[in-house]
Amino acid sequence: xRSTRVxxxxxxxxxxxxxxxxxxTPVRSLDMVRRAWTGLxxxxxxxTVEYVSHGDGSLGAHDGFRRPWTEHRARSTAAASAQGLYxxxxxxxxxxxxxxxxxxxxxxxxxxxxxxxxxxxxxxxxALDEISDEVCRVVDVAEVCRHTHPSREYVIxxxxxxxxxxxxxxxxxxxxxxxxxxxxxRERDAKNLSxxxxxxxxTLQEDFERGGIHLDPARRRDFDGSxxxxxxxxxxxxxxxxRPELASRVSLDxxxxxxxxxxxxxxxxxxxxxxxxxxxxxxxxxxxxxxLRDSNARRDVFIAxxxxxxxxxxxxxxxxxxxxxxxHSLGFETYAKYATxxxxxxxxxxxxxxxxxxxxxxxxxxKDEYAVIEKYNHGKHISVWDKTYAMxxxxxxxxxxxxxxxxxxxxxxxxxxxxGELLARVLGLRIELxxxxxxxxxxxxxxxxxxxxxxxxxxxxxxxxxxxxxxKFNHAAHFVIRCxxxxxxxxxxxxxxxxxxxxxxxxxxxxxxxxxGEVETLLHEFGHAMHSVLSDTEFQHLSGTRAPMDIVEVPxxxxxxxxxxxxxxxxxxxxxxxxxPIPDAMISALRKSRNIFRSIESQQQVVFALTxxxxxxxxxxxxxxxxxxxxxxxxxxxxxxxxxxxxxxELRFGHFVGYGATYYSYLYADVLADDIWKxxxxxxxxxxxxxxxxxxxxxxxxxxxxxxxxxxxxxxxDSLIEVNGGFRPLIQQ
Length: 733
Prior knowledge:
The protein is of the alpha+beta class and 733 residues long. 50% of the residues lie in helices and 10% in strands.
């Protein structure tokens, strides 16, 4: 059972800065195998505006007058369909998680026995998918609950149920009889499988085998040992990033400290009133580098943020070695070949060629951007620790906009209304606010949106949990609660997802006002939500975002384009007091700010992706020194900003753990999304049905079609370049 959470990437454009997730795709690395049954599944304040569903399907602000009949109907049907917390039938108290987990295991055991006793056939694939759906019904809710519920009792109960079910799916993952039933079904009855059924059966078998089920006992022991070791080392790498005794610190005088935002200043303490000392980590380093006016202080912060923790030198070397052992046990020469085999890329050769080609395209424009930064640094050389500050200064001069003034055009409730109108125009959808049934919600500020076609047919449910609270998941994420699938020839199980963010709470102005970056984040997550709710797959195993890692982010990256499009911004941006649309001058400044340093920022992503790829594609053991040398060499060759002696950013790059040779997937998605935008949206982004080709050729299929065929069908046969049996996107010059 693979993770179904899709969260935003902390190291998105702009280097290592932490920001609300620019995304985390379903983590499909080897380190997730033991948390899931890979053979069966992929797996505080109320707003002050009410919403009504207009006749055109969009949401609109309502000032307190009587709501229309359509919303009264939605309210009454919600009460009638009440099942439980997170809309899971029978979940009404923390102790229900234990009962639901036990009932699920008992039911799945009976289904598995029946499957193994029956003659292998096409029906075996459907039976496996049904078992998978039964497990996901509870484990997916446990996953979102343990990240979002404000009650520790619920969180603890959800975590116990999650672990219990993962232990169970590990046993299913090792069930040779289930594997043989599936393999025999593919061999004996392939003619009775639909195209989607055949792909589901193939991926199920591949997933079983990538879990080592087909290995002889000796190789299986080697595989299990390497896998367990890699899991332990991955967790140790991440723990070391959080250990206070391994944290880096800096000391600043009072005058220097005064240039930092109050939220950062409050993290510093002083014993003598002269020097103030504080921790430097991923949560505050980018803010410090952006605001500190003293270059020497920025140098100290940069070095602290990119040094150690020392134990991760050996941990990272051993992690890479253990992963190589897993790959070797399964017959792959390198872990990178193992990781890319089931994806669009199919081989590290395709990824490497893509990244090197992208680096070549970026090189000259990055030099031009560097010259702009130098202009605002009195023509002086820009050190890497000055980059963030100098870019912020240059962006302010070149683009001339006030972030606080822009935020006044993006009240949270107004942005959601605008997104509803946008979806009505480009996809013909009706987005209706529905009242939560008793016991369905988990926090007072939760909102429930029901997605329907223009004819009123149900498509799915989106829960919006968008404001911060203690203990809540602290990035932005798309959580799957229930997947789409056919439960009979005429009946579909409608999907349900939760979008979880941490936008500013209601301010003194009476609204939660979003930065433009937060608007982009919300659109990104709505892109994932559309992938889920518009999925028309027969099976849940490959529905929605359960697609290959290097294309699953394409819809979310495409939706980010609306945050920069003038027509879309007129829908999304309405002043919180006057309701006037965002001015053209502000839009122009925003659009200029997007592109002004895009090549420099993309270079940093190339460095991350190439380092991740090459570390996992070595055929010999790597020492901690050779890892540091490789990371420094790649940065020297592919970035305008050279490495600083004595620093080792790779020891703090947590994405090595979650991605393992697949960090490139974000750059794949960026390039493909750009191409889709230019082909279908540019020039008339809000045209009626503008996104229908996206829906029909990509979104509705989830992961049920070969990704190469999906992309060529959507963008043309020349949109991909074949490299040694793998594929990379064509990069437009």
